[in-house]
Amino acid sequence: MTYTLRSALVPVEDGYATVDVQIEVDRIAAIGPDLPLVGTAIEAENKLLLPGFVNGHTHSPQFWQRGLIPQLPLELWLADVFDTSPTEAEKTYLGALGTAIHTLLSGGTCIMDHLYLIAGQELESVAAAARAYKEVGIRAFIAPLIQDLPFVAGYPEGVKTLPHQPYPQSTEDVLAIMEAIVAQFHAPDDGIHIAVGPTGFHRCSDALFEGLRDLSDRRNLCRHTHLLETRSQKILAQERFGGSAVRHLQQLGFLDHRTSLAHSIWLDDADIDILAETKSTVVHNALSNLRLGSGIAPVLKYLQAGVNVAFGCDGFASNDGQDMLEAIKIGSILHNVTDPDYQHWITPHKAVEMAAIGGFTGVNLADQVGSLTVGKQADLVLYDLKNLSLLPRTDPIKLLVLGRPHAAVESVWVRGRQVISGGTLQTVDTAQFSQTIFNDGTGYPTPHYKTIHQVEAHYRRVMGLSE
Ligand SMILES: [Zn+2]
Known about the structure:
It is a single chain. By secondary structure, the chain is an alpha/beta fold. It has 2 domains: 2-50 and 373-428, Urease, subunit C, domain 1; 52-362, TIM Barrel (Alpha-Beta Barrel), CATH 3.20.20. It is built from 17 helices and 18 strands. The protein has helices at 74-83, 89-104, 122-136, 158-161, 171-185, 206-219, 231-241, 245-251, 269-278, 286-291, 299-305, 316-319, 324-333, 348-362, 396-402, 430-440, 451-462; strands spanning 2-12, 15-24, 27-32, 40-43, 47-51, 53-58, 108-115, 139-146, 192-194, 197-198, 223-227, 259-263, 281-284, 308-311, 380-384, 409-414, 417-421, 424-425. It has a 5-stranded antiparallel sheet with strand order 5-15-16-17-18, with helices on one face. Strands 6, 7, 8, 9 and 10 form a 5-stranded parallel sheet that branches. Strands 3-2-1-4 form a 4-stranded mixed sheet, with no helix packed on it. The mean pLDDT is 97. Bound molecules: zinc ion. Zinc ion (ZN) binds at residues 57, 59, 114, 226, 262, 314.
């Protein structure tokens, strides 16, 4: 399809300008004043045009655990998440749809889904998520979340103290599943990319990291993992590697310009230098970090060191929403309390750049998408500046980031395809989707948690909490 967006407001060096934008097939074909009309005319007057954002870290099946999991630190919260994770591929499909819908309606055009796989239905899980993303029309990176160490390996002294069985699949089995997933589902030309996604060093062996590094090299796949999300993981790194987990991942050859690292909270200055040197990306999930009490990532230090930083929502079980504008707001103004030098603070303009080009840098697509540049793929979002939440007419980007935009996304294009028009999703019937989700439940049942009782006393002991 071909479009001409007429009279859109866009940010420029010293403020804003009004321009026309032509979209041809999947690309931005021209940007400038008074362009000739080609294709469908889109009246963009009184609308702000920005590149789409990347939801740089989420777990779509947690859609079903929205508003469910109690206030707990990650290591105990995760026990409850595992006890209540969906086990049907149809729920994976609906969870991916729900995650994508929320992302699109808050300005995101791309998602990095660190996807939980249903045991024994690994390929079906990926098929379900890929089907949802193709249907809804979002650009997607699916990083199947894999591990090869037992659950208790994620706790300091866990393997030596807590009863456990070996992980049910061998490292070779897990790698074979990943090979099959890549062979079947990696389709960048359709907007579906497979990435390698070891859950983190805390539940993955060196052999698994090395196998995934090789797979990534052979197929040029992005790499995605959790990194030092909690103080407990920092203690675990000391126990397992006698030092820095970041140094260890570098020695394994896992860190490079295709690597994005979710959370990255408990890093020291030497670790930060490694991220800069390897050109790795940090995905900042500030809301999740607050919800789980994980800590505050040293994002201003990352930026000063030249480390690329993107924003993510993290899954619904630790954010309970999936609103990119909220993630950007909290993830930027949070740092005004971490450094008294206000010249280091993240401005709203910088924040939207981090969310767009920063996000696409993290998935190794910055040369193809992520800015308003002729020749780049058209992942574009129009915000309605007559929307009450974006009034009065002060500064649209400041208001978009610092305010609380509500239903402000008017149109969205992903890879040149219009997926939202007039504030309404064109690809999936959202009213029908809501009804489907409502019909699935039978009320508000009290969940039954059991795993937490096997690990809570141990966790309190190793973390030095009172008995
Ligand atoms: Zn996560």
